[in-house]
Design a protein that fits this description.
61% of the residues lie in helices and 0% in strands. The chain is mostly helical. Among the domains are: 53-207, Leucine-rich Repeat Variant (Alpha Horseshoe), CATH 1.25.10; 469-552, Leucine-rich Repeat Variant (Alpha Horseshoe), CATH 1.25.10.10. The protein has 31 helices and no strands. Helix 9 packs across helix 10 (199-209) and helix 21 (372-386) packs parallel to helix 23.
């Protein structure tokens, strides 16, 4: 027991000793840290209060932004950029002219993150495109699309400046309402009391930025210049078509297509791009040459023999659209080129309509192509060339035997259109189709061709039409039988009703339902009697319920029994749908006089003395 008690006393003493040593260490650390914190506060800014309102924070940062200490200005612009108060935004715009690169970059980043950029900030960001600092120029050039594309008045001023420059007149200086600088002490981001930027100056900034040594800045300027077509000049763009950056070369070629006038010079600049190793650059060159009219013929002819199929296709398309004298021959050579995809050749074949009957040999040759896409497009082109001249469309009938569903669909559409036009030209007796023609279509192994025969039967007389529809009701394909039943209901002859009655007992419920719907299209007594008899013998519950609903809708409303009149009572007038009712006479009230005499009040009694 004694040893056990001594052990407990030793543990308690050791715990007290450890606590005492911990307190000594904490006191030592505190004594060494406090002087360092005080020194840090003395070097940096004034201590920040524990609880500070937004207005107090902005006011403190405004004081720091005007300080001579660059560290305080850097910290101030970072904080001010997070606020959207007008005074804070005005201070950030003013910091765009700070002498320190880091302050200008932070201010530019803050302006780029604003949802709406003030006009004064747009002017400053445009000036920063010429900034000596590369990071600042990158940020400023990245917001050029918003500046150039977001202000319609800026676009118009730039256009007026270009027109004035070409005509020799002085450039207008009316961009002051759009681009201006804020007063540093005004405290309002919308204040415009500084020096304006003219339209010619903005165009000069953009063209000078194309010679920037940084590729990112050049890329940003080229991308943004598309917002203002024609603002860039050939002098500034010519070196960029030989830039090391592939994307810059493509953007420069696209920008050359937007330059107004100077077609011969632009064609000469683009001639140096025709041998570019990049396929995308050469294809963009073909598009740009297509905007130059006849001046682009030489370059496009060279690109039409390019090693890349896509470049050849683009060049030939531009030549065809420009009505080149050898356009049809170039089109034929390109369409027959198997190195080009079938879908792209089909799009090019659409331009064959420019040449009319001269393109018919090419279309007939492609109608037998191994590509179903080209066959379908060729048949569509041939159908447009044939028209309704009274000739039989034999090539369309032959195309209905094609194994491709797309080809048969195009031929069917052309035949239906041709049948309508042929009927109009031949009067009451159309030359096509006839009963043997439709019989040949009904013998086709393809269901869509047999369905076409049912739809073309509307061009026949009732007896011939009934013959075609009767054959279609025995077809193996369900959509053909359903379509035939609808046409029988429209025909409405006794023989047609007989066919509909037989179709009610078809083992396929879909056919029976189609026959019920067809009979409901003609609510005649004969149709009602057929449906009533079928309702009594039908064994399919779903079909029987549908027939009951149809009968309920077609049954006439019950007649209202006449009410017997009492003897001696006047007979009520019979109101029919075509009997005009006599006008109702409403007695007018007696006129009220305008002045009504009012009774005078009795005199008050005199007060007692």
């Amino acid at each position: 027991m004694g040893n056990f008690g001594g052990h407990r006393v030793g543990q308690s003493a050791r715990r007290r000793l450890r606590c005492l040593l911990g307190m000594v260490v904490v006191l030592a650390v505190g004594v060494s840290v406090l002087p360092r914190l005080g020194a840090a506060e003395a070097v940096g800014a004034a201590p920040v209060p524990a609880h500070e309102t937004e207005a107090e924070t902005i006011q403190r940062c405004l004081e720091d932004a005007g300080s001579g200490d660059v560290l305080r200005r850097r910290r101030a612009v970072l904080i001010l950029g997070k606020y959207r108060a007008p005074v804070a935004m005005a201070a950030v715009v003013a910091c765009l002219r700070d002498e320190d690169d880091e302050v200008r970059r932070s201010a530019a980043v803050a302006v780029a993150e604003w949802e709406v950029m003030p006009r004064s900030a747009q002017a400053e960001m445009l000036r920063l495109v010429r900034d000596p600092s590369v990071p600042v120029r990158r940020v400023a050039s990245s917001v050029l699309p918003e500046i150039l594309g977001g202000q319609r008045s800026l676009d118009m001023a730039l256009l007026r400046a270009q027109v004035a420059a070409r005509s020799g007149r002085p450039a207008p200086a009316d961009l002051g309402a759009v681009l201006s600088l804020p007063g540093r002490g005004a405290g309002d981001a919308t204040a415009m009391d500084g020096s304006p930027l003219e339209g010619a100056a903005v165009a000069g900034i953009l063209n000078d930025a194309l010679s920037d040594p940084d590729a990112t800045v050049r890329r940003h300027v080229l991308s943004a210049a598309r917002m203002v077509p024609g603002v860039l000049t050939c002098e500034a763009l010519e070196p960029l078509v030989r830039d090391d950056d592939r994307e810059i070369r493509i953007l420069a070629v696209q920008a050359l297509a937007q330059v107004r006038g100077e077609e011969a010079r632009r064609a000469g600049i683009l001639a140096g791009v025709l041998g570019d190793p990049d396929v995308g650059v050469r294809r963009e060159a073909a598009r740009s040459l297509g905007r130059l009219g006849g001046d682009g013929f030489a370059g496009l002819e060279r690109l039409s023999a390019d090693a890349d199929p896509g470049v050849r296709l683009q060049a030939v398309q531009e030549l065809v659209q420009l009505q080149h004298p050898e356009g049809l021959a170039l089109l034929e050579r390109c369409v027959l080129d198997d190195a080009i995809g079938a879908l792209e050749r089909r799009d090019l074949l659409l331009y064959a309509g420019f040449y009319g009957a001269a393109a018919e040999p090419l279309l007939r040759r492609l109608a037998g192509s191994s590509s179903a896409v080209l066959r379908a497009e060729a048949i569509r082109g041939l159908s447009r060339l044939s028209g309704a001249d009274g000739a039989r469309p034999d090539f369309l009938l032959a195309s209905l035997e094609d194994a491709s569903g797309d080809v048969r669909r195009v031929a069917a559409q052309a035949l239906a259109r041709w049948a309508v036009m042929s009927g109009r030209s031949q009067g009451e007796a159309p030359a096509w189709p006839t009963v043997p023609d439709l019989a040949g279509l009904q013998a086709s192994p393809y269901a869509d061709v047999r369905l076409l025969a049912v739809r073309l039967s509307t061009r026949l007389d009732p007896l011939a039409r009934l013959e075609v529809l009767t054959e279609a009701c025995l077809d193996d394909d369900l959509p053909v039988r359903l379509e035939a039943l609808q046409h029988l209901a429209v025909l409405g002859t006794p023989a047609a009703f007989e066919m509909l009655t037989r179709s009610l007992d078809d083992p396929d419920p879909a056919v029976a339902m189609a026959a019920v719907r067809a009979l409901s299209m003609r609510p005649q007594p004969q149709a009602l009697a057929i449906l009533q008899a079928f309702h009594e013998r039908c064994r399919d519950d779903e079909v029987r319920a549908a027939v009951a609903a149809v009968l309920e809708d077609l049954r006439p409303p019950p007649a209202v029994p006449a009410v017997p009149e009492a003897p001696g009572a006047p007979s009520a007038p019979v109101r029919g749908p075509y009997r005009s009712m006599p006008p109702r006479v409403v007695p007018r009230p007696a006129p009220v006089p305008r002045t009504v005499p009012m009774p005078r009040p009795a005199p008050r009694p005199a007060p007692a003395p």
